[in-house]
Amino acid sequence: MAFFVTFGAVPAAIGQDHPTLESALEEACRLINEGEKDVAIQSGDGRSISGDVLIRCCGGEEPLGEHLFK
């Protein structure tokens, strides 16, 4: 399954799709660290992870997994 990173008030996928959740998280964390707002990871089936849960994953406080997607 591919993953896409989005951000901003009108979410739009940026860059290319990521073949793994880990590579999508790397890009999402980079954007959060650069100060971007409303960063999310979208899965190919339409579910997403964002907000405080994504921030905790970036900080290593929450283990990353597909179970977090809503």
What does this structure look like?
The chain is α+β, with helices and mostly antiparallel strands. Helices cover 30% and strands 20% of the residues. The chain is built from 2 helices and 4 strands, in the order ββαββα. The protein has helices at residues 21-33, 51-58; strands spanning 3-7, 12-13, 40-43, 48-50. A 4-stranded antiparallel sheet has the order 2-1-3-4. α1 crosses α2 (51-58). The chain is globular, with a radius of gyration of 11 Å. The mean pLDDT is 87.
Report low-confidence residues grouped into runs of 5 or more.
none
- Secondary structure class reads alpha+beta
N to C succession of SSEs: EEHEEH
Please list the strands of the largest sheet in the order they lie side by side: 2-1-3-4
Short description:
By secondary structure, this protein is α+β, with helices and mostly antiparallel strands.
List the defining traits of the structure above:
single chain; alpha+beta
Note the topology:
Blueprint: E1 3-7, E2 12-13, H1 21-33, E3 40-43, E4 48-50, H2 51-58
Antiparallel strand pairs: 1-2, 1-3, 3-4
Helix pairs in contact: 1-2
